[in-house]
Please model this.
Amino acid sequence: MKINRVSARGVSPASPVQIDLPRLLALRGVTGAGLPALRHPSAIRSGGYRSTFRGRGMEFAEVRAYQPGDEVRNIDWRVTARRGEVHTKLFHEERERPVLFVLDYRRPMFFATRGRFKAVLASEVAAILAWNAQSTGDRVGGFLFSETQHCELRPVGGQRGVLKLLQQMVADPAWQRPLHAPFEPQQRLVRTIQKLRRVVKPGSLVFLLSDFAQWDQDVEKELALLERHAELTLGFCFDPLEAELPAAGSYRLSDGQRDLTIATGERASCEEYRARFAAHRQQLERFCLLHRARFTALSTEQDPAQVLQDATFFRRMPHARR
Model:
């Protein structure tokens, strides 16, 4: 097996190592291919639809007595104290809910042994979801980050918001960096999430697409604070080689400049390798269980359109006790 980090320049529109605008524009055609609708009929919103994403909107409506199933965070403590009975706040949903696509363009995302680079996978998934959001009246924005910088795009309604996101994705400097340089982040992931948390507005839908390198307890704390006022989906991008080593044998790997031969016949080493990946994924899933965020695993060998046709992508993970 030979693993090459292929140059991302001068490739075809359907390249596994590069994105371009025609390709992302063409993904608009798959938004209706079996994808779960973002809205259902009979809502008090323009167009007669409402989002299937449950969460607190921006506009206060009224206060009423607490009912089983109401969000504890919406309890109105002043009214509760005054009346001696628990009351909760109700909110009208926004007419155009902000949808923010957070894309990880750090070096580890520019890797794959099958299918497409993790960064390409994340970009195509974001493009499909962005077109879906636009078609149902939501505002689309972005937060793109690498190991050295980040770019913020304020959510904008209509086709203009999607086009601005796609253009920024293609133009991001991460696609033009020198090849083969090591991953030497100037700041850890937690610092990026802290910046993200200051950008996200209450009631937003946030899709965070990453391999979550540098995931730790500090990252979890920041994302937990973000999830208090926004709805969060973690899209875990990975390559099959990261999950499990290939069958026993000797394999030559290359980054285009240097070669490395690895042997995969030692059972204990293979099991340890597999366990490390499983532990990383379980950390992400456990976070989503505790905070009722959404989780989906995205393999580089999967077709993004087929992944998103799975209705479970749009569902929350069941709540777990802390």
Observations:
- The chain has nine helices and twelve strands.
- Residues 1-13, 33-58 have pLDDT under 50 and may be disordered.
- The chain has two domains: 21-37+95-314, 39-92.
- Residues 76 and 303 are 46 Å apart (CA to CA).
